[in-house]
């Protein structure tokens, strides 16, 4: 029998944190792909342990630090962005799933950039305020940790999975386009319809996985879809450019994901705690009608002006959402209407009128744009999927959207399956570090980076990383939740890739433009340059009895069921060029700076 560190038997009525691979096995009687935390070794194993907690003393030292060679950059630059004291929580995934609302299906802590949402443009991020003391507008975010002392019913999870149809969810391209020249509009509409057909075909293939998880099959479907989408999206960009327009940044919209969020809808009401009421929608956001996908073809002479005004609409929305965060608790019940929504509508009317005038100088003036001026405080359920962005031919199968996922609700910002009180970090250390064998070059502004993998069960563990430890045990990282000695903090250590391809700020899978250095030597792969390597250490004061009872866990996607190996972290660099040069210089000179 498995036992806790205090010697008491481990029974199934405790708040179990069981990897979903075991649940799939129990639900279906057969398992195509199983996964057990493997310490970042990229391995899979059918013998998933029921115990996802481990005393840190039982984790052998496993952190290797390469010795600096001649020419190494040994400095360190730290940034103080606070511990999310302003309470910016969000289920968006701005790096991995741009444009998809509630894409994470779990709640993140955000520090740094105050405006960022799934829809933020680079210009929005650059215009934002920040929680960082040195003015760094970068966005740093990670899943929250919760304490939940209620007994978790894993039968409900098994039953929900058995009825769940996995869905392919893709970012909307039409809603993110810049102005499309008149001569390219017809071709672009046809290509957007092609994207819809590709997604629908992928979803048709996914019906073979109903009620089960097959990571190899998921990769096969999404890899094939990525290749087709990449070709179509390149064609959209080429078509627009040939007609005199400009469509940068579309590579960020190539990657699609397999979603199991239908499990949320299948969970019984009791799985989402009774304390949650619709009237307590937490973390509301301003939602405005999209305009980019509503415009006709734009005459060549009006492209620049229309794009400036579309960017202004985006900036106004980001500014309003930032104001919503920073003004929380101010005024009475009408504060948001009078101080945020009313002024925003007036600004949008003016900008929409300028767009209509710019187009009307050289073509038929578009009518009715003012219908897109009114924004709302969005507290209603949303759908993380995207409907077709243009009217597809009748022969095209529209992509099926995933199940409706509610916004985080109640005082604990709960989502189905992610319940309990959020543990605020006691400490967040953000540091940029050097390379053991070479100098670093400044990372480019707006670089996106991921570390870890939020879905090692449904995607496979190749990108997952062990992150868990305790203060005082920096020589070891666990892929399970640590049980720390008295007086020691629970910590998560997130190391980001420290090598860059020298060209791109993003890639079609959000990973290929950056790379991790060699673990043994610290050298970057051929063709990559060393950049300031970001490390984020998040520390928590979690009562030891909570640790011993297995009552704390990570927010996760439903198929992960709080798997500790699904820990991850995301980053967008919005440091100014001058600040990033200062960071690189400090590191290259071997200094400690802040």
From TrEMBL:
Coiled-coil zones: 303-330
Occurrences of domain DUF1996 (ranges): 434-573
UniProtKB keywords: Coiled coil
InterPro entries: DUF1996
Protein name: DUF1996 domain-containing protein
Naturally occurring in which organism (per UniProt): Micromonospora humida
């Amino acid at each position: 029998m498995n036992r806790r560190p205090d010697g008491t038997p481990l029974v199934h009525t405790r708040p179990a944190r069981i990897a979903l691979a075991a649940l799939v096995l129990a639900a279906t009687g057969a398992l195509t792909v199983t996964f057990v935390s493997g310490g970042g070794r990229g391995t899979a194993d059918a013998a998933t342990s029921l115990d996802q907690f481990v005393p840190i003393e039982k984790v052998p030292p496993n952190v290797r630090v390469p010795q600096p060679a001649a020419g190494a950059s040994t400095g360190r630059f730290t940034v103080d962005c606070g511990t999310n004291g302003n309470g910016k929580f969000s289920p968006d995934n701005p790096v991995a799933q741009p444009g998809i609302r509630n894409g994470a299906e779990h709640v993140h802590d955000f520090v740094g950039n105050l405006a960022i949402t799934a829809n933020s443009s680079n210009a929005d991020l650059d215009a934002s305020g920040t929680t960082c003391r040195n003015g760094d507008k970068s966005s740093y975010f990670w899943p929250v940790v919760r304490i939940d002392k209620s007994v978790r019913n894993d039968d409900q999870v098994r039953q929900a999975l058995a009825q769940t149809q996995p869905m392919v969810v893709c970012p909307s391209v039409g809603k993110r386009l810049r102005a499309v020249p008149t001569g390219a509009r017809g071709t672009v509409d046809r290509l957007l319809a092609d994207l819809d057909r590709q997604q629908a075909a992928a979803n048709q293939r996914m019906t073979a996985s109903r009620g089960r998880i097959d990571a190899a099959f998921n990769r096969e479907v999404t890899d094939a879809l990525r290749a087709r989408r990449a070709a179509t999206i390149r064609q959209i960009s080429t078509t627009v450019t040939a007609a005199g327009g400009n469509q940068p940044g579309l590579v960020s919209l190539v990657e699609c994901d397999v979603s199991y969020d239908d499990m949320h809808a299948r969970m019984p009401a009791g799985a989402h705690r009774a304390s949650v009421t619709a009237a307590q929608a937490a973390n509301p956001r301003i939602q405005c009608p999209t305009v980019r996908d509503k415009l006709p073809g734009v005459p060549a002479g009006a492209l620049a002006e229309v794009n400036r005004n579309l960017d202004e609409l985006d900036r106004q929305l980001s500014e309003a959402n930032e104001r919503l965060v920073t003004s929380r608790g101010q005024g009475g019940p009408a504060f948001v209407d009078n101080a945020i929504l009313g002024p925003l509508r007036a600004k949008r009317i003016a900008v929409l009128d300028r767009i209509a005038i710019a187009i009307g100088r050289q073509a038929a003036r578009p009518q009715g744009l003012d219908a897109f001026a009114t924004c709302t405080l969005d507290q209603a359920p949303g759908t993380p999927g995207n409907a077709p962005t243009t009217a597809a031919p009748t022969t095209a199968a529209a992509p099926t959207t995933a199940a409706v996922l509610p916004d985080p609700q109640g005082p604990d910002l709960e989502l189905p399956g992610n319940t309990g009180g959020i543990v605020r970090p006691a400490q967040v250390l953000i540091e940029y570090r050097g390379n053991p064998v070479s100098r670093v070059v400044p990372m480019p502004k707006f670089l996106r980076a991921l570390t870890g993998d939020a879905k090692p069960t449904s995607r496979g563990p190749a990108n997952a990383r062990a992150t868990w430890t305790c203060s005082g045990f920096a020589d070891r990282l666990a892929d399970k939740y640590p049980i720390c000695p008295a007086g020691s903090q629970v910590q998560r250590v997130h190391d980001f890739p420290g090598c860059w391809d020298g060209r791109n700020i993003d890639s079609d899978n959000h990973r290929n433009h950056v790379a991790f250095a060699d673990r043994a030597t610290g050298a970057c792969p051929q063709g990559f340059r060393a950049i300031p390597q970001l490390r984020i250490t998040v520390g928590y004061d979690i009562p030891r009895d909570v640790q011993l009872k297995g009552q704390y866990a990570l927010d996760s996607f439903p198929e992960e069921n709080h798997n500790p190996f699904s820990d991850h972290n995301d980053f967008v660099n919005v440091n100014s060029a001058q600040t990033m040069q200062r960071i690189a210089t400090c590191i290259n000179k071997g200094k400690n700076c802040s």
